[in-house]
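Quick one, T. Sequence first:
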Amino acid sequence: MNRRRALGVGGVAAVALAGALVWWQPWNGHGSDADRVAAAVSTTTAATAEPTTTTVPAAVTLAPLTGLPVPEERVASLVRPALVAKIDGAAQAMPQVGLGTADVVLEVRVEGISRYLAVWHSQDVQDIGPVRSARTTDPDLLAMFGHPLFAFSGGNSGVLAAVGSSSWQQSVSHDVAPGAHRRTTVKRPPHNLIADAPELWSLAEDPVQLPTPLFLTPPPAAVADPPGPGDPVPEEPDPAPGEPVPGVTVPVGSGATFAWDAERGGWLRWAHGIPHRSVDSTEGATGGGEQLAPTNVVVLETSYVSSPADDRSPEAVSLGNGRAWVLSGGTMQDGTWTRDDRTRPWDLRDASGAPMVLDAGTTWVVLADGAPTVLDAAAVQALPR
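Structure tokens:
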């Protein structure tokens, strides 16, 4: 069953600061990104459904970056800013610590490889890392998350000036918060700087600014009312948008591969030619861990220019427009992205101009050098396990 079509065009999570609740709110796909962001930070009561064949809950607590329901006992934990950390993408850093609990990961190119801007909010996490240096790519991307905490290991003077002048982020770098960072002995420097996430969150400035949704996700699941005598037979849901694909490779850094896994309900990820795994603590940082499998993968064709802080360092141009591909539920749809303000998320549209809707869950965003290459079933089967 296609959750996106069966439930109607996607909804957004709206954060009620006073009640610390995130309510489902319908969004009809019209209006500007400004309208969507404004809706996402307003206190909203969910619309009451007309008595038809389905009903929706009157109020549902959703995590803003995933669209997933949050248990009542954990709602208060959402009242914190997003924690963004610059995570090492080198082969020597694998498996990373805590990466599997990030709501969103943004993958960007650096010198020959990738690094990750991993974003934690709805899930609790203890250790995260290895943490690496900031780049001039980062400020424009950080602005989408409100007033996030930003953990990084340092940077050259030009990078530090760019980050320091970005008032929309709060630095909790190694220099600013040395007590929240430590070097482990299980990996060699510079691939061994680990941050204590609860300690970083404790440094958040007041008032706390919560993140707003980046993507459209479905509203809460509609529940079918029991059919009555003479009721028409419900129509079958529309097929999932896009084309079924077993997997893709994406040109970014040294390359990334994703393959659909129906059992996990996500896209298994490979990096540096091996399964990309994440562990929960530094004790497992030399191997093991579960393979990453984000619910959604968003590929954004992105231009890179030389950083003004270091002409050897690439800087992603994340404002403007370009081609986009959304992988959800085993299918891929292609379209375009537009982003004209750093404080707004990407506006994803399909070929008809309609908004592209992601499944509720975690999302991996790749700022790629080009289009993904589709893999057939045989190529996916041949991937190392």
